[in-house]
Amino acid sequence: MTTKPSPMGNLARVLLAEDDEEMRALLARALRGDGYQVVECPDGFRLLEQLNALLLSPEVLCMEPAPFDLIVSDIRMPGVTGLSVLEGLQLFEDLPPMILITALGDEATHAAARRWGAVAVFDKPFDLDDLLAKVREIAPARSRS
What we know:
By secondary structure, this protein is an alpha/beta fold. Helices cover about 40% and strands about 15% of the residues. The protein has a single domain, classed as Rossmann fold (3-Layer(aba) Sandwich), CATH 3.40.50.
């Protein structure tokens, strides 16, 4: 899988949605340390706000690259769940791939995530190195120059 160049500089961009502040800070720090530009969202509503331009104007994607190379989202968050966002994204083409993380990952949740196109699902607690390896596979970090 190849990624499109990010319009916001040369770094690959990850949209990170996690309602647990400590977990979000840990993930953001790890991703930034691995060479990614990270936009953080504390809940599903903020995740939707970040995706708003893409969701409301998919024709924008024909003119320029998506503003994010990858979305990493918790499944269960206040307001809108990561799984709901993933399901809604299926209506649009050429949107960033999505990795889901969850503390309550039963088989039904994993099946739904696969059905809606998640590229991976990680059950908390997960090995951070495994998540970073998957992120690198899907959206390789680009140079800072």
